Amino acid sequence: MHPSADERADNRLRLPRWMTSEHPLPWLFPCISLLLVFGLYPILYSLWLTMYKRNPATRMETFDPAWNWSRLWADERVWDALQVTLTYTFVAIILQLTLGMLIALLLDTDRKGFGILRALMTLPLVVPPAVTGMMFLLMYDGSFGVISHALYDLGIISKDDPLLATGSTALLAVIIVDVWQWTPFMVLIMLAGLRALPKDPFEAAAIDGATDVQAFFKLTLPMMSKIIALAVLIRGIDLFRVFDYVKVMTDSGPGTATETLTAYTGTIYFKSANFPFASTVAIFTLLVVLIVANVFIKVFKVRF
Amino acid sequence: MEQSRPFIIARYTAAILIVMIFMFPIFWFALTSIKPISAVFDKDGVIWFDFVPTMENYRVTLLGESSIDVNQNTRSDFGTSGGNSYDGRGSILSSIIVAVGSTILSAGMGMLAAYGLSRMNFRGSQGLLNWILSQRFLPPIAIIIPLVFIFHDMGLRDTYVGLIIAHTLINLPIAVLLMKSFIDDIPVDIDHAAMIDGATRWQVFWKVILPMSKGGLAATAVLCFIFSWTEFLLALFLTSSIRTIPVKITTFVTSTGSEWGYISALGTSAIIPGFIFILLVQNHLVRGLTMGAIKD
Q1: What was the pLDDT predicted at B78?
Q2: I need a surface site. Which of A276, B80, B163, B277 has the fewest CB within 10 A?
Q3: Which residues of A270-295 are buried (b: 16+ CB within 10 A; e: fewer)?
Q4: CB distance A118 to A191 below 8 Å
């Protein structure tokens, strides 16, 4: 038996009004309110903090909107950190993108066993970055690290210059850790992209006698450009705020050779408790991300 | 396409080699976790398999059995577990509470918002979606300092609820985006058919959309869980006595040296839940990760 109209109406009445609403607000309210209170408000709070000058001796704060920004401008550590951050982001993204694409091409086949290999390839993604840092710290160690020993044996580095304690190698050593953890993310995205490509153009190209390499550059790359741009954007923004590896592995050292903007902000926060200046560096980081990301979105026409 | 035999063999070799290289750090870490301490440090070089396996490190970190080292280490910087500073049980519990809490909140709120955005066309819906997404792109460092103050004022500092909210904040944009892409794939006619039969919006959502997007919800939940499980910066700033595993593990590095046995045992254990979850939802995840980018 079908329920009568009365029963249906009754059914409706028993539900609280917001549950029957045709208005989008009840559905979006929890999400938006959380993001407003804990996402947007802190940013405004941060901006407000940047306007105060902190006297380290008296710990008093006075209103002086330009003070922190002029200090930021004159602080060489900020510009060093920006340079480290940009180098880190740029080198890591190139490595991850290239390796990710190559590995995806290698694994993109239905032959027996490749499913398992693809699954194994994603596993670095679930290792907590702080644990990853530890993992590599163990392997990089100058006296008992397996990677260091391999590099000694190959004559690439000497025992006098431990990887993470030497300015010229520390940053690259940290970037390698990032590459280990996040190349699988690129592989995943590239695999999904490769799988979604139409087959016809490739068959046509094969008939015309195109080689695999030609097909890759003339067909695969152009058709994947959108997804590559999106992947670069997502990873780029994540890379720009790198913190875990640096904090765990080198604590910005040796000297400030691996100090990124986020790490520098953390140092100010924990060591000098100068919250207004720490906020200024943080807002500066945010501004750089916003500008670079928006230029990237415009230039490469990224859509979500 | 026809492929020659040497080509196929080369492809298998290269693929297996690459995967082995990527698996090596995890393998080495797990191997270290069952080494006695004498096999971790050796003056003559690196010890591979020449040692007697021990479960000592797991006993200390997972079962809280005390070890000799503890007596030498009297620092009182351990988590909620109390007693033994290499006892990882408290941090495992903290991580589970926070990750599960934040997963439920983000997946739940994210799914509601995704349904609203997917099914109800209203002025500014695209702008709203973009704004929600842009929250994901904020460097956490930009909000962390005021968040510490706000949490302090609200009594949320160093509480489970506080850290759950913070992780939800990070997860929500991704949850909305993923769920929206899954709900968008369900034809809107199904909603209408159900409503003609007298179902309310809420009933449509609960009885039709939810069961149909189970796979997507599972992938979203797994992603939220892993993000929260692995998160370090917010946990470091917002808590002091509650220690999630990533934060706890860094306390095993002391000025007198690193406890590699305990680090590798707790670290290896921390990897396992993520491994299992990601393998379970792999296929959905690949689809979700690519979002709308490969649709048209």
Answers
A1: 41
A2: B80
A3: eeeebbbbbbbbbbbbbebbeebbee
A4: yes
Both tokens of residue B61?
């970190």
Q: Measured at the alpha carbon of residue A198, what is the angle toward residues A194 and A203, in degrees to the nearest 5?
A: 105
pLDDT at residue B121, rounded to an integer: 77
pLDDT tens for A191-238 read 888 888 888 888 899 898 888 889 999 899 998 888 899 889 989 999
What's chain B's average pLDDT?
86
The distance in angstroms from the start CA to the end CA of chain B is 26
Mean pLDDT computed over B259-271: 94
Mutate one of B16, B117, B135, B145 to test the A interface: name it (highest A CB count within 10 A).
B145
pLDDT tens readout for residues B99-109: 999 999 999 99
Residues of chain B contacting A85 with CB distance shorter than 8 Å: none
Cβ pair A289:B139 closer than 8 A: yes
Cα Rg of chain B, angstroms = 24
B156/B163 Cα distance (integer angstroms): 8
A109 chain-B contacts, CB cut-off 8 A: 11
Rounded to two decimals, the ipTM of the complex is 0.87
Judge whether B118 and B101 are in contact, CB under 8 Å: no
How close is the nearest chain B Cα to the Cα of A103, in Å? 8
N residues, chain B = 296
Chain B CA closest to residue A142? B45
Structure-token pair, residue A180: 């280990």
Which residues, in sequence order, are CB contacts of B123 under 8 Å at separation 6+? none
List Cα–Cα distances, A69 to A46, A275, B30, in angstroms. Answer: 13, 13, 47
- Provide DSSP, A130-147: HHHHHHHHHHH-TTT-HH
Chain B nearest-CA residue for A13: B200
pLDDT at position A139 is 94
Q: Could you tell me which of A297, A285, A293, A286 has the C-alpha nearest to residue A84?
A: A285
The partner residues of A154 in beta bridges, in order of sequence, read none
Residue A295's H or E segment, with its range, is helix A275-300
Give residue B296's pLDDT.
Answer: 42
The torsion angles phi and psi of A52, rounded to 5 degrees, stand at -110, 140
Q: How far apart are CA B159 and CA B238, in angstroms?
A: 8
pLDDT score, position B2? 58
CA distances from B189 to A12, A28, B180, B199 (A): 21, 22, 17, 13
CA distance B183 to B217: 10
A138/B113 Cβ within 8 A: no
- How far is Cα B132 from Cα B65, in angstroms, rounded to an integer? 46
Q: Are A212 and A132 in contact (CB under 8 A)?
A: no
Question: Residue A33 and residue A26: Cα distance in Å, rounded?
Answer: 11
Band of residue B4 on the pLDDT scale cut at 50, 70, 90: confident
What's the whole-model pTM score?
0.89
Q: Which residue of B has its CA nearest to A276?
A: B145
- State how far residue A196 is from chain B, nearest Cα, in angstroms: 7
pLDDT in tens, B142-198: 889 899 999 999 999 999 999 999 999 999 998 998 899 889 888 988 988 888 888
Which parts of chain A sit beneath pLDDT 70?
A: 1-21, 304
Mean pLDDT across B209-238: 93
